[in-house]
Write a structure and sequence with these properties.
alpha+beta; 17 strands
């Protein structure tokens, strides 16, 4: 199964095409819509003021409520565009945004409005595609859950089970420790007030994958497959599995996961490896944490270059932007993980 995201932030519509979807899947559109609603901006000052209904339309690949095996095309129409807000960045790229790289690659023909195809707006069809993947995984007993693990250095509690993470997904602000969540919210509001932005991280768990999937080589390595999908999410700059960078602080006696038997099944007493050994699943939950950079679009003056003249200049971004994308990105990371898990399984 492969997916393609199409559209631009300020174009008429955005969407996703999934090829290779197995026939006979009951496509629960109410579930798909709930996943999209989780990604939508809130009304508490933590997100962009842009308002989109994000109602998904199925253009092909479904008949009588079930997938046919033909390409599944999911469409989401745009309606709340303020394209004039972006005229200033047409030739003065935002630092650390995809503006400049995209301008060069497109030979100056980039759709700069709202970030065009580089916009976080394009994560909406990714969530829709991921919802279909979650439905496929559900039939195989595989679940995907995530929470905000940190924002601007403020860390959430650690999850103890997959069920706990699935329950967090129902929250407007998906954290385990609500007090830490309030501190995170305040950090976001403080950044917005100062015309700035903050980054953070999301921890995700994929439970139910059997042992023995994947391979140590290029192309089939489980960590490599997940990473490819995760780095396709705008703003993701780091991915670590299990203990991740903390391995650098451990001895082998601390890092190793002792084997045990539970209900007749081989398990590990700890999961520092994040459910993967030698590029192959070991039957424990696949766990990872992704780090998302602060939003590049900030209203503080920043140094840039005028691409028409080649001269250095300054830019202060106007318009509607997120001071933090982490809380809205939780269902996006889950979607990417679900699509990756489908590839690992071989769907």
């Amino acid at each position: 199964m492969r997916y393609t995201i199409f559209g631009e932030s300020h174009g008429p519509a955005i969407g996703a095409v999934l090829e290779g979807v197995p026939a006979g899947l009951a496509l629960d559109l109410d579930f798909v819509q709930r996943e999209l609603d989780r990604r939508a901006p809130g009304r508490d000052g933590l997100s962009t003021a842009r308002r989109e209904a994000d109602r998904v339309e199925v253009l092909s690949g479904v008949f009588d409520g079930k997938t046919t095996g033909a390409p599944l095309c999911l469409l989401i129409r745009n309606s709340d565009q303020h394209s004039g807000d972006y005229e200033a960045i047409r030739y003065t790229p935002r630092p650390s945004h995809g503006d400049y790289a995209g301008f060069v690659q497109s030979r100056g023909c980039l759709d700069y409005r709202g970030g065009g195809h580089f916009s976080g707006r394009l994560t909406a069809p990714l969530v829709a595609a991921g919802a279909a993947a979650k439905l496929l995984l559900r039939e195989r007993g595989v679940t995907v859950g995530a929470h905000i693990s940190a924002i601007y250095g403020i860390r959430d509690a650690a999850p103890q089970s997959a069920a706990e993470l699935l329950a967090v997904g129902e929250k407007e602000f998906p954290v385990l420790d609500d007090e830490r969540g309030r501190e995170m919210r305040q950090a976001i509001l403080d950044a917005r007030k100062e015309g700035d932005s903050v980054g953070g991280s999301i921890e995700c768990m994929v439970s139910g994958l059997p042992a023995g999937l994947g391979a140590p080589d290029f192309g089939r390595n489980v960590e490599g497959i997940f990473s490819q999908y995760l780095f396709a999410v705008p703003g993701v700059k780091a991915v670590e599995f299990g203990a991740g960078v903390a391995f650098a602080l451990m001895r082998g006696s601390e890092a190793n996961d002792p084997f045990a038997v539970e209900d007749g099944r081989v398990v590990t007493e700890t999961n520092n490896a994040g459910g993967v050994n030698g590029g192959i699943t070991n039957g424990m939950p696949v766990t990872f944490e992704v780090t998302l950079r602060p939003t590049p679009s900030i209203s503080l003056p920043q140094r840039t270059v005028d691409l028409r003249t080649g001269e250095e200049t300054e830019i202060a971004v106007k318009g509607r932007h997120d001071p933090c994308i982490v809380h809205r990105a939780v269902p996006v990371i889950e979607a990417a993980a679900a699509l990756a898990a489908c590839e690992v399984i071989g769907i």
